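Lab notebook: predicted structure, single chain.

Context: the supervisor wants predicted structures on file for every construct in the current expression panel, including those that have not yet been purified. This is the next one on the list. No modifications to the sequence; it matches the entry in the shared construct table.
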Amino acid sequence: MIEIKDIDDNPPRFLQSFSSIWSGSYKVRLLENVPIGSQHLLPSAYDADIDSNAKVRYQLLGDSSDVNYEKMFTIKVKEPSQANTEDSVYLTVQQKLDYELKKEYFLRLEACGLTYVLPQCSSLPVRVLIQDVNDNAPNIVYPSKNIHEITVSEASPIGTLLIKLEAEDADSNEAGRVTFSIPHPTDSNTLTDTIVKGNHTNHSLPFRLDPDTGEIRLSSSLSASNIPKYTLNILASDNGEPSLSTLLQLRINVADTNDHAPEIRIKRIGCNPQSSDLTKMTVLSNAETGTHVCLLMVSDADLHQNGHVKCQSETIDDELQQRFGIGFSLLSNGRVSGHALYTLQVTRDLSLSARLSETSTGGPALFTTLVVTCKDHGEPYALTSSVSLKIRLVHQKDYQLCFEHQQYRLEIEESDGSRFNLLRPQLQELVDHVRFELKPIEKMDGNCEQLHVDEDTGELSFPSGTDREHNEYIRCLLVASEFDEKTITRSATTEIHINVTDTNDNIPNIIPSLLLTGFSLTEWDSLADLYGEQSESSIHIGTIVAEDLDAAENGTVRFHLKEVTAQATHPKSLFMSELRLPHFQLDSSTGQLTLPPDEHKRVDREQTSDFELRVMLEDCGTVVKQSNMQTLKVHVDDVNDNPPKWDPQLVASVPTTLNHYGLGPSPVPLRIHWTVSQESLDELSAHLRAFDPDQEENGQFSFFSLEQEHLPKSVLIGRTMLPKKAYQLNENGTVQVWTSNLVRDQEYILGVGVRDHGQVRRLQSTGYFYFNPGLYRESVDTHIVKYSFSSFPNDVKQLLTTRSTDSPHSSTASATTHSPWFSLPVSTFKLVISSLLCFGVTVIFVGGMIVYVISRKRVIQNTEENILNHQNLKGNTENPDGQEQVTSESLVSHYTSTDPYNIYGTVNFIPQTGLNVYYPDYHSAQLSRLRNHTENPSFMEDPLDHHGFQISNGQCYSLASAGLMTHDKHNNITCSYINPVRPYGSFFK
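Prediction complete. Output recorded below exactly as produced.
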């Protein structure tokens, strides 16, 4: 054999480079967020040599342009294992990768043999591709700060570009695409909510943001006077998973432009009932300097200098000045709440006042026209507004008194407490002597009594509070009367309208009529299935109607069913704890009370006559809720679902099937108890008894007789139907039979029934009884006239001499009958028997107690007398003092002998039971046996005799009959007893 030795003549080769799909490099894809130390498997080289020549040494080389590859990556080689016969080469990450810094690395995995002189090597190009992950949040390039402020003119047209936001994201693809948004306050819990100053929300902002370009344009007009500043939170988000965001706060200041002219409002002083034009006013002919004619309030919606206003007046017609010396001046009163206030006053030339007397009151009216011009300080140009005032001159007698407003409207909240300083209506002029009073506008307006007016100041108040439920709307006429001494010279009126708003001060209540009557619910009809009358839908019981005097939500009532209880029809016979109550359903909004069909089956009037529902009523008040717990009754109405039932004392057996001609059980045998008439022995009477648990007509019933075809054929065999002329059955259940019309040796049968008086359906039960005239005649002949026949067919001839008791459940009373002198009523008979039984038990108990006391006394006496019976002496025990106290009363007890001749001490005694010791039954295993050669140191030979005994089969037999009597102090005996004779000395326990 020639062995060929291997030499290292094959270089390691990477088989991947020989594949048809070889792309020139082996690609490794790594996420940029891979942890440091993570390893990724690379291909292994194959060497055709064997053993040590096949071992490969690996080396990782980098691109000549990348000198940092050694810091980023290294390789780890794992030796072959049983599962893998080749080396495992892993590329290990040594530093954190960053896609944004370098996206790929070009490496070479070199594999060489272990020959170090001229090693043979091959290499595998490795291309490491770094994959991007969304690890960079967007960076807002413009504006560069996270809080940016811009100013825009309120005159800017819609569509004006306010700012263009720019942002970049170092990530690639969707993770690097940035979009802009104005987040809703609930969109993110980690970002600051959108802040919008003013009354605007996100949906009403006057700006439009393009999410892709970042352009913010004006979408509606701006007004610096309304909202001078906006603050927006703008979110720049990439589209990676998960998305990363950057927040920018943009503050937009609205610059004012002078685009609003001054606005002039006039408040007249004085009355002008002929015209509602505020520019027309009057002045008294005797008005003095400083008298107010009107008040001007001037405002400008512009800001700063654009909103500052200055006014001046110019007289167009100075007729009043020339003729009466009456002129007018405009005085500034400063600014109040953004308004410039001016007062138009009278200036009087007193030198011309004498001419007033020359004015003809019947001539044409005199006027003066005055123009008031107001100008703001806007730049580059000012805006002006003007108003023309026409002032008429009137005499004092023609000048009317009036309030500032013809109508005052006030809204207050109802309250139990006093309400003061509600309103003080003002007159148009100052009057020295005036009195105020309230009057109803119409006769029906009687609620003005609640409202009080101060007669001197006109102040309105509610001294006793106000109740909206009593008066929701109050309408009164306020009259102001000017008087001179006691004469009213002028008066003015105005209407006062007060709307009283609600507070939740009333609890909800079920209407009284419903609380009184409750609801009605028909019980479940157990027989309805036979008629197909039962409904499968929910039972509508009724709708709870509640009232709450409050308004709106305060008066809206919700219903909640809290508890259901039941009232038993027969409380003494019904265990309420075992009653399954139905589950009523109550709609919380509508108050509709229903009962599902499955729950309806639990409603049985014969068990439950009423249900009590505990209902909580709660209003929907927002500030405070009012609630009330009330009880509502649901009465259970009866249906005829129970046939009349025979008195159990009459029924001989219980039927198991329905009869063949009507509802109710099949005929049952009855026990009839007959009473003999005192007038004639041929006339007998009895009373049928039944009961029906239904109500009213459904529970009322009457009796009737059955025809032969309605009786089972089996009970008719050998019997004849009782002839109609021989009996009479009344509707109340009274039965009379005349035996003179019957055959003595014939047995008769009569079918009877009981039927209720129901309207929807009539239910019944049937039965039958036998009658044997022959048995009755035999009882008469033997002077037994009180008897009953058993209804059992096999016991027909049984003669009873006792009278059955009336049923306590019978719905009708037994007929009054006359009994013979020797027949006792049932109740009396029961009382006599009960008394005798009680007396007998008492005698037995007393006698037993007497016997027990006597026997106990005898036992104690015999115990004292026979204290030394059956003793087990301890050998050679001395008792120097001759005494030792008793320690127990057990079967074997310690006793003390006081006999002075007793020189031996402790002995064990067995107490005697008092029986005659000569009785053989007394000698049992309970007797103590004395040891042989036992001493009797107590000198009991005389008068106590020891009789020798012999044990045989566990019994002691006396040897006295054999003449073996001993008087020795030492007795060799097998068993022993002591004759019950009192020894010397006394003993105690």
